[in-house]
Write a structure and sequence with these properties.
This protein is an alpha+beta fold. The chain has helices spanning 2-17, 26-57, 60-77, 86-98, 103-115, 166-170, 191-204, 229-232, 258-271, 289-296, 364-374, 433-437, 442-452, and strands at residues 123-126, 141-143, 146-151, 155-161, 177-181, 184-185, 207-213, 216-222, 225-227, 237-240, 245-249, 276-280, 302-309, 312-322, 325-331, 337-344, 353-357, 379-382, 390-396, 402-411, 426-427. The chain folds into four domains: 2-57, no CATH class; 69-118, no CATH class; 141-229, Pdz3 Domain (Roll), CATH 2.30.42; 233-452, 2-enoyl-CoA Hydratase, Chain A, domain 1 (Alpha-Beta Complex), CATH 3.90.226.10. Helices cover 35% and strands 26% of the residues. Strand 19 (390-396) and strand 20 (402-411) form a beta hairpin.
């Protein structure tokens, strides 16, 4: 504050010298002086801060400072020191960054610079609140709660039903084909007209669906409601496939409470008679490693993965049950806990397990199946994955910008390299829309075949 007070004193002397306060009584002058002092302090605090922020990125010297800090962050923290020639990498983008004529252009250069690493994890974020687009999902939209695709001469094929929405409450299921909405047929509709029909039905406040489910036709009544799609899209959901096989769909490990929810769902499925389980992780992009660890705890106990950085072990993940709690912790080489998460009343599922994946699985969504396969705990069904298995950390730069940096690479406890990707035990392409419309989900059918040791694929021919 000493510098601020000195600036204030010089400004006040200048005001008095130029007769800005030169009338009225001494009391009035004193009051005016106090008011001026108050507003001057606000002026100096606000605009002084703004000028300081501008000076950092709005000049070549400021941009160079931010740029160099970004390069140093990768040099010091990226998990593989030999991944790139960091100086040569910086030289490719330095001129464009230093010559940027706007903040948006500067951000674009640095974003392009990090995308050039092709590691699928590191990412430029920039300064929050400055118009950066993070691809957020619109929340609070009026809807029914299902994901779909249109199939010509057939109708609307339901690909996913979100939990706790009008669609799930009414009993709509994946693979259902909607052939009529509010008595308006869809089988001869076009890509354009079916969206109009859905929108008009939602706007009317009541939606009647005629649904084809395999060889049957059923009617469902739904009342549209406001849905926070950003929240429901990551929620796991479960149902019984037959008398003995439970099914859990887990679209993401993002968001708190995923691990707890999965344990609760397994408990509910076991109460319904499930002694084998299909865990559907298709297209799972990952999320929180701690939530993955808690989910893994339903199927194994002890250490399950390790992280390597700069050629050395930095931590191992370990799940343990402690009384009525399940605890996943990251343990450093000295056996010290560096992070932990816990759930209440965990379950331990020892029955046969199959896990479904696609080529789009990555991060925690790929690490989980890799570990379960490596430890011999699950049969993996689906498509070959790419080996996108890094852990990231957020770093602050001098101007307040944020950047994600891949700081560790995950591998099996026996040293198996996960970056080569996952080779499923049963390779099968994800279901086509035509197959789904016929009620056949190929990966689920192959998983049932593997779990039950059947000589045929259930539901393939009908």
């Amino acid at each position: 504050m000493d510098d601020l007070e000195a600036k204030e004193g010089r400004f006040m002397k200048l005001c008095l010298k130029n007769s800005l306060i030169c009338y009225g009584s001494s009391a009035q002058n004193s009051l005016l002086y106090g008011m001026l002092r108050k507003y001057l302090l606000i002026f100096l605090l606000f605009f002084g801060f703004a000028f300081a922020q501008q000076e950092l990125w709005d000049t070549a010297m400021g941009r160079e400072r931010i740029f160099n800090a970004l390069v140093d962050t990768f040099k010091e923290n990226y998990w593989d020191t030999n991944y790139r020639d960091w100086n040569a990498w910086a030289d490719e983008f330095r001129e464009d960054a230093l010559n940027a004529e706007s903040r948006a252009q500067f951000d674009r250069v640095l974003s392009r610079m990090i995308l050039d690493l092709h590691d699928d994890h590191s990412r430029w974020i920039g300064r929050l609140g400055e118009g950066m687009d993070f691809g957020g999902t619109e929340s609070g939209q009026e809807g029914l709660g299902f994901q779909h695709a249109f199939l010509g001469n057939t109708g609307i094929v339901v690909e996913r039903v979100y939990p706790d929405t009008p669609a799930s409450i009414a009993g709509l299921q994946r693979g259902d084909v909607i052939v009529s909405i509010n008595n308006e047929g869809l089988e001869s509709s076009s890509d354009f007209s079916y969206n109009r029909i859905i929108r008009e039905a939602i706007d009317s406040g009541h939606v009647s669906l005629e649904v084809k489910r395999k060889q049957s036709r059923i009617s469902l009544e739904l009342t549209p409601t406001r849905i926070d799609f950003g929240s429901v899209s990551s929620l796991p959901q479960a149902n019984m496939l037959d008398e003995h096989t439970g099914y859990i769909y887990l679209p993401s490990f993002e968001g708190e409470g995923i691990g707890q929810k999965v344990h609760d769902l397994i408990r509910e499925l076991e109460a319904q008679g499930a002694d084998s389980l299909i865990l559907d992780l298709r297209d799972n992009p990952g999320g929180r490693l701690g939530e993955l660890g808690l989910v893994m705890g339903a199927f194994l106990d002890g250490e399950w993965v390790e992280a390597i950085s700069h050629g050395e072990l930095v931590w191992r993940a370990r799940y343990r049950r402690n009384g009525d709690q399940g605890i996943n912790a990251l343990i450093d080489p000295e056996d010290q806990v560096i992070a932990s998460e816990r759930i209440e009343d965990p379950v331990t599922f020892n029955g046969p397990l199959a896990v479904l994946v696609t080529k789009f699985n990555s991060s925690a969504g790929e690490i989980g199946p890799l570990v379960l396969q490596n430890l011999g705990r699950a049969t993996i069904v689906g498509e070959v994955t790419s080996g996108n298995v890094e852990a990231i950390r957020t770093f602050d730069l001098p101007d307040g910008s944020l950047v994600y940096v891949a700081v560790a690479n995950l591998q099996a406890l026996d040293g198996t390299d996960f970056t080569t990707g996952l080779q499923p035990d049963v390779i099968v392409d994800d279901s086509s829309l035509d197959e789904l419309a016929r009620g056949f989900d190929a990966p689920v059918a192959e998983a049932l075949k593997a779990l039950k040791g059947l000589p045929f694929t259930p539901g393939k021919f009908f």
